[in-house]
Amino acid sequence: MLVFDQVDYHYRRGHPVLRQLSFEIHQGKFISIIGGNGSGKSTLAKLMNGLLQPREGQVKLDHLNTLKHEDLGRIRELVGLVFQNPDDQFITTSVLDEVVFGLENLRVPRDEMAHRVNEALKAVHMEDYVEAMPHQLSGGQKQRVAFAAVVAMDPSILIVDEATSMLDPQGRRDILDVMHALHRQGMTIIHITHHMEEILSSDRVLLLSNGEMAFDGTPSALFSNVSIAEHQLALPFAVRLHQALGLNAPLCADWKETITSLWSMS
Amino acid sequence: MTDNIIWGQYINSGSIVHRLDPRTKLLSVLAFTLCCLILKTFGGYVAATVLVGGQLLLSRVPVRKFFRGIKPILLILTFTFVYHLLVTQEGIESGVFVVWRILLLVSLASVLTLTTKPLDLAKGLEQLFKPLSNWGVPVEALALMLMIAIRFIPTITQELDRIILAQKARGYDIKSAKGHRQVFAYLLLVVPLLITTIQRAEQLAMTIDARAYGNGKGRTSYRVLRFSRIDYVAGGLILAFILLILYL
Amino acid sequence: MVYELNDVSVRINGEEILQSVSCTLKEGKWISIIGQAGAGKSTFAKVIKGLIPFFKGEYTHNQQPLPRDSKGNMKVVPQIGYVFQFPEHQIFETTVYKELTFAPKVKGESPERLEEAIMMVMGQMGLSGDLLQENPFQLSGGLKRLIAIASVLIAEPELLILDEPTAGLDPISRTALLKQLKAWQGEKNRTVLFISHQLEDVAEYSDEVMIFKKGRLLVHLDVNELFLKHIAFMEQAGLPLPEPIQLLRLIEAISGRILEPASCREEDIMQLVRSVWQSRGLQNDG
């Protein structure tokens, strides 16, 4: 379980980025984090695996604490992080080496590496590109390699920070499929996004506004309770559709199913 | 601009030169460079040329690719040649030899980079210098640094191309700037490049940390370099050849 | 003004990355350019601006060939504005004022004319005049983006190229930016080339759409024609349909009726779907 306890963060004194954040995330959940540009989402992600440490309060993962230096190594093994720009998170010069890099850091024995590399690349459908170099890959492919590099390290929590925002529609769909497949295997997924369509299928949504938690609950509760526009968000298509047709049915990510079943019920 | 960069332009033809241990290649390039510096006789030059030419042939690197790689050097060579022609006593002769020597060194270096993956080069250097880590030299970290440099040269050149285009699109052609405006023109390039590169570096450092690098436990290594029989043979042959060159 | 390409091909490192493209860009149109990554969208835009040479074909402006330099290469077309991806990365001046006036100063505009242009462009982008003396590097990402775009608009381009101008922006900023750009385009009857992966935005704001696939121009047609009549092109290019269009298809399939909304914009589709939805009970009874 990941616990935020009264966490404050600022880069410059007097300019708080996050204020008094307290929440818990249970294993195996799919969580979406949303909020406008500059609301503190990325900072939150970096606090989760100890890339940043809280100025006040604590971030704990089970018995580990990001404030304890000796815990950091273990925390980073358990909490994987994929960032926005595929080019800036390709450290090495080939797909194989990229996936191997994290394993070497975890001191995985050499004989075990080949197997784990293979599994991770299969999970993102990049097994045919083992020897490819970064400049031979598209943005979407590079991003999938970044996922494989993290997945190979076998984290229990995967944080995805706007990893779909620079991709074409196909690339975006591929990444979302990978995330849902990993979630089905029991991984906790924390997805930071601007795309409202992507949050409907999550278990829980955290909405950040000016560094404070403006909402914490299910997607359908979010869209029925909070005045969204105020927090720099837009309504996803499914919600607009529900409003336009005056539907009372529960909100569901797959609006096509809702429409089809309601039509035949009349 | 970008396509003349030979770094990271590794082409795999599976030749015997490709299969050599990077350390063998690094050490022989080093020995050959030293040898070139003391090269005096015409016979020596011819023998050295045979050595470099032989390696080039053995490596089966496409000739076009090879020449494209060394093209940027040609300007420097012409300049050097003209300089020797006009300034030094021996004129033509000294010019020819200097240009010849540079060509030999550049060609061998190209063979090295065309037949060895940048990462293997970094690995080779890392293992060669491993003993220094006993003296507190952070060999592993330096090797990572080297690898990142190799990895990002093409990315940063692309970035530079993009900035040049963007300035051009705003009506400012860097190439047409003259006199003191040239300094300004370069500032226009360097400032955005520096800023994006620093942002990139920050992001990359974060990625490296997030992938649990340097957690104090040391690392294992997937690519382990081992000298094989061809390395001993090739090493011996190159050494013999270098001795021959020095003797001529 | 009309820009015309006739059978233009671009080759880089021996590879034809744009093949035999012919098209006419007419005045006053918002033309969206879509296609998968690597389909040639940005290359096409760069050819239009005169930033990269083509080895085959012709490029004319109002039936006149565009000027070339002494070596026969295309010159940059000054009356076209180009907003690159993440344009805020190109900012280099120390105040917003200097950044905005960079291009006009290169062109040698008079100071009076400059003041006027600055006030106008700041108003158009919804920026406050207080920002002018600020250091752009200290502003938020969203503001930097607006300033970078304003610094292109200030030159009053007759054709504006936007390469994914909303990438990385949150939904509210994204909609606000697109509405401002659309207003600018409509007011001045300018042409916009809009490269985007956001197909919902394409359906919402465009007059025409160009679809690229593997370096070729697959088709160039009216936005309503594309999304209401010829959606097969989208599939051919490996692109999904915008959600409102998917809704329209679904309702057609389950109702067995052919629906003809006034346009492919979400508002019109929703209106039609609502009326079909409300009448579905009656229809079933009858």
TrEMBL record, chain A:
Swiss-Prot/TrEMBL keywords: ATP-binding, Cell membrane, Membrane, Nucleotide-binding, Translocase, Transport
NCBIfam families: ECF_ATPase_1, PRK13648.1
Topology in membrane: Peripheral membrane protein
Residue ranges occupied by any ABC transporter domain in the UniProt entry: 2-235
GO CC terms, sorted: ATP-binding cassette (ABC) transporter complex
SMART domains for the chain: AAA
InterPro entries from the UniProt entry: AAA+_ATPase, ABC_transporter-like_ATP-bd, ABC_transporter-like_CS, ABC_transpr_CbiO/EcfA_su, ECF_ABC_transporter_ATP-bd, EcfA_1, P-loop_NTPase
Protein name in UniProt: Energy-coupling factor transporter ATP-binding protein EcfA1
Compartments it resides in: Cell membrane
Family, as annotated: Belongs to the ABC transporter superfamily.
MF annotations from Gene Ontology: ATP binding; ATP hydrolysis activity; ATPase-coupled transmembrane transporter activity; cobalt ion transmembrane transporter activity
Main location: membrane
Cross-referenced Pfam families: ABC_tran (PF00005)
Annotated Gene3D superfamilies: P-loop containing nucleotide triphosphate hydrolases (3.40.50.300)
PANTHER family, per database record: ENERGY-COUPLING FACTOR TRANSPORTER ATP-BINDING PROTEIN ECFA1, HEAVY METAL TRANSPORTER
Automatic annotation (TrEMBL), chain B:
Transmembrane segments: 26-46, 66-86, 98-115, 135-153, 230-247
Domain of life: Bacteria
Record's subcellular location: Membrane
InterPro entries: ABC/ECF_trnsptr_transmembrane (IPR003339)
Cellular compartments per GO CC: plasma membrane
UniProt KW Membrane keyword: yes
Membrane-related topology note: Multi-pass membrane protein
Keywords of the record: Membrane, Transmembrane, Transmembrane helix
Pfam families xrefs: CbiQ
Protein name: Cobalt transporter CbiQ
Lineage per the UniProt record: Bacteria, Bacillati, Bacillota, Bacilli, Bacillales
TrEMBL record, chain C:
Residues annotated as domain ABC transporter: 3-239
Top-rank taxon, per record: Bacteria
PROSITE patterns the record matches: ABC_TRANSPORTER_2 (PS50893)
Primary location recorded for the protein, binned into one broad class: membrane
Compartments where located: Cell membrane
InterPro entries (UniProt xref): AAA+_ATPase (IPR003593), ABC_transporter-like_ATP-bd (IPR003439), ABC_transpr_CbiO/EcfA_su (IPR015856), ECF_ABC_transporter_ATP-bd (IPR050095), P-loop_NTPase (IPR027417)
Keyword Cell membrane: yes
Keywords, alphabetical: ATP-binding, Cell membrane, Membrane, Nucleotide-binding, Translocase, Transport
Topology in membrane: Peripheral membrane protein
Transmembrane intervals: none
GO cellular component: ATP-binding cassette (ABC) transporter complex
A GO MF term: ATPase-coupled transmembrane transporter activity
Family the entry assigns: Belongs to the ABC transporter superfamily.
Protein name: Energy-coupling factor transporter ATP-binding protein EcfA2
Naturally occurring in which organism (per UniProt): Paenibacillus albidus
